[in-house]
């Protein structure tokens, strides 16, 4: 049976050190955790002793001490192809934090809260906002959710839930605000003129004029554009609109293998029709090259706070302004949930922003 030792904290209030020792087949597991109240400490003892009755969990506990870093490493190894670059970068940053060196069995909600407070030490951000911290906590929570069930690593999902509850109450974490940044025609003219001149000077560079226009009129994300293949493209016919198979489309539930057919508006199809067929992919360039070119151009031209992804937001908004309904827009954008498109419900203007625009693909 476990024991509880009462200890004073720095603020004078008591803390409770819960200790268990369980012996089986000549092996002994000793674990301890500190709690703020006696009731929670007692509940943890009952829960953990019941878990250690499972031979698989007991063997995992008697093996090498598993750290949070070990759990993140295994998660990345097994799910690396599905988690995306942003999540992978966040998990890599967490592995550089002190929490990564903690034994899984010893991580409490207090440790997770402390990690959230000091995440700036590994991100390089001077003062990360609540939405940024929330991203890191969310990605770490994915590891907590499966570590015990999948591998027997004693990470406590309830400790993560408790930490998230505290951080939300303290407003230390929050969901990011929906961006509503849309490029003006003047900004787009500046960008496309710049990329047109660049293309003349460096013909073998990425055709950023067509990439920007395709992103704008197809509503495709940068990563999706670089994965498009000629075999995934079906031109328009008398009976059917043009469409393209978007591979591994971003989705909260699953990314890898989430291939979706999306319709192409005429302008997007016109851009594809003028691309050279020199290989398997339609735009044989990396996201790094495209993203860097776009960011450099915005900085050079003095265009503030414009992201490549904002082209997708502009493209979807344009369709609503053209009078398209939610189901029709979803066929182009690829949104599985119409609720995701409700943010555009405020659009009441019926206007073609790009009517007569010189860059509009014919």
In short:
It is built from 15 helices and 6 strands. With 362 residues, the chain is mostly helical.
Detailed description of the structure:
- This protein is mainly α.
- The chain folds into 3 domains: 1-63; 64-177, Orthogonal Bundle (DNA polymerase, domain 1); 185-344, Orthogonal Bundle (hpI Integrase, Chain A).
- The chain has helices at 38-52, 55-62, 68-79, 84-94, 109-117, 120-123, 130-151, 157-169, 185-201, 208-218, 222-227, 266-273, 287-301, 310-321, 326-333, and strands at residues 3-8, 14-24, 27-35, 233-234, 243-246, 260-263.
- The strands form 2 sheets. It has a 3-stranded antiparallel β-sheet with strand order 1-2-3. Strands 4-5-6 form a 3-stranded antiparallel β-sheet.
- A hairpin with a 2-residue loop joins β2 (14-24) and β3 (27-35).
- α4 (84-94) packs across α7 (130-151), α9 crosses α13 and α10 (208-218) crosses α14.
- The longest helix has 22 residues, at 130-151.
- The mean pLDDT is 88.
Please give a handful of descriptors for the protein shown:
three-stranded antiparallel beta sheet; 6 strands; DNA polymerase, domain 1; single chain; 10% strand; 47% helix; 15 helices; 362 residues; 3 domains; hpI Integrase, Chain A; mainly alpha
Shape: elongated
Instruction: Give a quick account of the main beta sheet: strands, pairing sense, barrel closure.
Output: 3 strands, antiparallel
Strand order of the largest sheet: 1-2-3
CATH superfamily of the largest domain: Intergrase catalytic core
Q: Please mark out the parts with pLDDT under 50 across 5 or more consecutive residues, or reply none.
A: none
Strand content: 5-15%
- The CATH topology of the largest domain turns out to be hpI Integrase, Chain A
Determine the mean pLDDT. Answer: 88
- What portion of residues is helical? 40-55%
Whole-angstrom Rg: 26 Å
Helix and strand sequence: EEEHHHHHHHHHHHEEEHHHH
Count structural domains: 3
Which architecture of the largest domain does the CATH hierarchy give at level 2? Answer: Orthogonal Bundle
CATH class of the largest domain: Mainly Alpha
- What is the number of beta strands? 6
N-to-C span:
77 Å
């Amino acid at each position: 049976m476990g024991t509880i030792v009462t200890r004073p904290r720095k603020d004078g209030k008591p803390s409770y050190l819960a200790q268990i020792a369980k012996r089986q087949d000549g092996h002994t597991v000793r674990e301890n955790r500190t709690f703020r109240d006696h009731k929670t400490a007692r509940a943890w003892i009952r829960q953990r002793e019941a878990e250690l009755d499972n031979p698989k969990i007991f063997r995992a506990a008697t093996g090498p001490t598993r750290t949070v870093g070990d759990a993140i490493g295994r998660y990345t190894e097994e799910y690396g192809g599905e988690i995306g670059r942003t999540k992978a970068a966040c998990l890599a940053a967490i592995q550089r934090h002190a929490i990564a060196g903690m034994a899984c069995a010893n991580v409490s909600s207090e440790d997770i809260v402390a990690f959230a407070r000091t995440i700036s030490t590994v991100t390089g951000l001077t003062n990360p906002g609540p939405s940024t911290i929330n991203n890191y906590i969310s990605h770490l929570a994915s590891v907590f959710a499966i570590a015990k069930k999948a591998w027997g690593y004693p990470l406590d999902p309830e400790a993560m839930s408790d930490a998230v509850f505290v951080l939300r109450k303290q407003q230390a974490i929050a969901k990011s605000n929906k961006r509503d940044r849309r490029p003006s025609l003047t900004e787009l003219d500046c960008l496309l003129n710049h990329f047109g001149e660049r293309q003349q000077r460096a013909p073998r560079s990425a055709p950023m004029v067509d990439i920007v226009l395709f992103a704008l009129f197809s509503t495709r994300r940068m990563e999706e554009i670089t994965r498009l293949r000629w075999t995934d493209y079906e031109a328009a016919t008398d009976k059917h609109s043009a469409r393209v198979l978007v591979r591994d489309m971003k989705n909260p539930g699953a990314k890898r293998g989430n291939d979706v057919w999306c319709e192409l508006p005429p302008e997007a199809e016109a851009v594809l029709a003028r691309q050279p067929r020199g290989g398997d992919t339609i735009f044989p360039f990396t996201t790094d090259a495209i993203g860097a070119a776009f960011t450099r151009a915005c900085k050079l031209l003095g265009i503030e706070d414009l992201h490549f992804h904002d082209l997708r937001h502009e493209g979807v908004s344009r369709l609503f302004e053209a009078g398209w309904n939610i189901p029709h827009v979803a066929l182009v954008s690829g949104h599985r949930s119409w609720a995701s498109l409700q943010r555009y419900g405020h659009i009441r203007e019926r206007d073609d922003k790009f009517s007569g625009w010189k860059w509009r693909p014919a």
